[in-house]
Amino acid sequence: MNNEISEDEDFVELINFIANEHRIPRIFRQRPDYFQCLRDFEFVERFRLSKPAVLYVHDLIRPEIEHPTDRNFAVTSRQMILMTLRYFASGSFLVVCGDFVGVHKSTASRTITRVSRAIARLCSKFIRFPETEEEISVTRQEFYAKCKFPRCIGVIDCTHIKIRSPGGEDAEIYRNRKQYFSFNVQAICNSNLKFINIVARWQGSAHDSTIFNNSAIRGQFERGEMGDSLLIGDSEYPIRPFLLTKLSIASTRAEQLYNESIIRTRNCIERSFGVYKRRFPILSVGINIHVSKVESIIVATAVLHNIAIDLNEIVPNIVQKWKT
């Protein structure tokens, strides 16, 4: 009897030895608290938002992203949002962003996707087209005060967001006219450079007018839901009763003044895209994750762009002056 027990114990010990021989021991890396160890300007340089702004966003999405327990040294919700912002701010490889917070690259990938989708779901709250008569009136008055163009409610344009090659048979539909892979993103902004509408699902080969013709905002204008309000676009768009573009030939003084006003008004969307891409360099460097996750990152960064404007955040290229 004792011999049988001894043989069983030896067998179990052998199995455990074989099972554990090649197991890689778990390593829990140090996870610094960047809210405490970084000064304000250093924090903005690395995450593109100030500490109060990050905490504001954190409070909005915390119920959706935090883990129910702290078992297995779970990543906290604050660490999750900082990792995602670091990815937006640098466009680095996932392994670099993971090392920045102290997690494996697979954890970094899942976390960035989770946080991006949580922020993107705030789109209806922070990216809103004017709806009430008061909102429409205020938006039109602000455009006229700054650009001297009457009845304007928004400026529309498209910009290309660079991505890595998605591979497969359909990869070439993402290649744009400048010969790199991208998403062609349509946006409408107001005079304060805030996005009030965004469409981020089209491949880089899609033409600006095609995106507009298939957008919900076009239907709203054609149904008369925006009254006599106008959109301002560039020459990529056909002229419509509610969409005006610059005249190709301005022969009279009135036509020249019209073109000057159009140029001043369109400057809003050009500046908006400029600030948007300076704040989140990943949009220019290139989004290097799976193409199915790109749309949520584009919308999430647009939401953060609007939040930054609401909170009067510093434009990124001014951050360097804080040191002097």
Automatic annotation (TrEMBL):
Q: Name one GO cellular component term.
A: cytoplasm
Molecular function GO labels: hydrolase activity; metal ion binding; nuclease activity
Q: Spell out the InterPro entries in the cross-references.
A: HARBI1-like, HARBI1_animal, HARBI1_dom
Q: Name one Pfam family in it.
A: DDE_Tnp_4
Q: Answer whether the UniProt record assigns the keyword Zinc-finger to this protein.
A: no
Where in the cell does this protein reside?
Cytoplasm; Nucleus
- Repeat as a keyword of this entry, yes or no, is no
Q: What does this protein do?
A: Transposase-derived protein that may have nuclease activity. Does not have transposase activity.
Q: Which family does it belong to?
A: Belongs to the HARBI1 family.
Listed name of the protein: Putative nuclease HARBI1
Query: Upper lineage ranks?
Result: Eukaryota, Metazoa, Ecdysozoa, Arthropoda, Hexapoda
